[in-house]
């Protein structure tokens, strides 16, 4: 029988890779707390939270228990015509915790799908209002919203990962990414660009969609909450819906429960995912207002046109409930502030490395931006040799560790980044 790693190499396509992969794929035997144990016995401190979702680390007894208890009742049941308690409880939690006015919840299978749902909601709403010309989306450059076709259409068309598909995508409207820094107010330039975009295109816009405060996979850029406040004002003035993609920023990553909380505003539609289940199961949700859901109901065909097979999977809903309860019962905000401080301190030395453009931290996010794209194959191997797991992309080497991490392990992560970049840039 073939070794399972050989089977993987021969048959499995990994994210954003060739087959076989052009870089080494490391076999994982187990994971516990903030440690990932490889098949060869090496143990790595996780600096990625498995693409930002495993906020409680791995193999958490409370989350394990939630899965096990739900499994005794049912693993899945179709959501068409049926419902179940874990979904109802989760919906209630999300309505309570998210910004005011978001009262209706549509469960989706992934973050990308939740963005598709949000875009569909916006288009259906305006169609029901007999304004079928309002069917395009405004967004900011350097954004990332997922890998499905609707989501790809609002990702950055130049620097994003989906340029190959531009001829096949809906043609959306883009404005420059905000230049106003997180700690600053709204710049005149940002204000003017927003003014022009809304003045010229409001009649054709279904919604303005953006990642609030933090642009994730599009460049790990942090920008001013004042930008969001002004966007909210313009959307209200010009009758354009506001969509927040909180898939990466939701559930405490930025230091607030949701990034929208930094601006103290509510969008018309919000997408959540990733950390929703604590990294245990795939699940996302799209929340909206009663006004929008009622508007969709009034149009043809009088219902919302989407329905995934595994929508509101009971196992996923059960562990999501447990993850949220676990987070809220902890001193998560205090811990995220500590992680931010540890990251800032540990990554400070990187500023002296040739080739480093900027070091920036916000909440449990630490970013080292390079002048040029990193050599992924070389850097990944060097990082693993340091006993940590970090997944760089493009010009960015970044950290988004689980919230349960301690200072010593953060130091191990930041020391590894400093060591590897110092040696590679020589």
| Proportion of residues in β-strands | 15-25%
Reading off the top of the CATH hierarchy, the class of the largest domain is best stated as Alpha Beta
Based on the coordinates given, report the CATH architecture of the largest domain: 3-Layer(aba) Sandwich
Order of helices and strands: HEEEHHHEHEHEHEEEHEHEEHHHEEHEEH
Any idea how many domains?
A: 2
- Looking at CATH, which topology of the largest domain would you report? Aspartate Aminotransferase, domain 2
The first-to-last residue Cα distance is 44 Å
- Mean pLDDT over the residues: 96
- Assign the CATH superfamily of the largest domain: Type I PLP-dependent aspartate aminotransferase-like (Major domain)
Poorly predicted parts: none
Strand order of the largest sheet: 4-12-11-10-7-5-6
Q: Kindly name the structural category.
A: alpha/beta
By DSSP, the count of extended strands is 16
């Amino acid at each position: 029988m073939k070794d399972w790693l050989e089977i993987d190499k021969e048959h499995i396509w990994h994210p954003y890779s060739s087959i076989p992969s052009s870089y080494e794929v490391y076999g994982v035997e187990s994971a516990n707390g903030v440690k990932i144990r490889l098949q060869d016995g090496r143990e790595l401190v996780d600096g990625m939270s498995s693409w930002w979702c495993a906020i409680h680390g791995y193999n958490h007894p409370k989350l394990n228990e939630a899965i096990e208890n739900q499994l005794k009742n049912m693993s899945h049941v179709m959501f068409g015509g049926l419902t179940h308690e874990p979904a109802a409880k989760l919906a209630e939690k999300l309505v309570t915790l998210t910004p005011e006015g978001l009262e209706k919840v549509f469960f989706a299978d992934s973050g990308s799908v939740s963005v598709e749902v949000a875009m569909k909601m916006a288009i259906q709403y305006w169609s029901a209002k007999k304004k079928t010309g309002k069917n395009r989306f405004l967004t900011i450059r350097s954004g990332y919203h997922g890998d499905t076709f609707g989501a790809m259409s609002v990702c950055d068309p130049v620097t994003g990962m989906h340029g190959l598909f531009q001829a096949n995508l809906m043609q959306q409207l883009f404005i420059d990414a905000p230049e106003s820094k997180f700690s600053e107010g709204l710049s005149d330039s940002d204000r003017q660009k927003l003014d022009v975009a809304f003045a010229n295109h409001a009649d054709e816009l279904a919604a303005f969609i953006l990642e609030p405060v933090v642009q994730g996979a599009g460049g790990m850029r942090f920008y001013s909450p004042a930008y969001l406040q002004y966007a909210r004002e313009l959307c209200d003035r010009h009758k354009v819906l506001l969509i927040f993609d909180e898939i990466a920023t939701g559930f405490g990553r930025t230091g607030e429960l949701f990034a929208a909380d930094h601006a103290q505003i509510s969008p018309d539609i919000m997408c959540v995912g990733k950390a929703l289940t604590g990294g245990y199961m795939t699940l996302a949700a799209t929340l909206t207002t009663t006004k929008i859901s009622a508007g969709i109901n009034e149009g043809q065909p009088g219902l919302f046109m989407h329905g995934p097979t595994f929508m509101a999977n009971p196992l996923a809903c059960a562990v999501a409930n447990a993850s949220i309860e676990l987070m809220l019962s902890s001193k998560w905000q205090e811990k995220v502030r500590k992680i931010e401080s540890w990251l800032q301190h540990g990554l400070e030395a990187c500023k002296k490395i040739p080739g480093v453009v900027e070091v920036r931290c916000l909440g449990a996010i630490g970013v080292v931006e390079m002048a040029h794209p990193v050599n992924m194959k070389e850097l990944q191997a060097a990082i693993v040799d340091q006993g940590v797991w970090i997944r760089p992309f493009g010009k960015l080497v970044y950290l988004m560790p689980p919230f349960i991490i301690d200072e010593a392990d953060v130091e191990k992560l930041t020391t590894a980044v400093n060591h590897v970049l110092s040696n590679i840039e020589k």
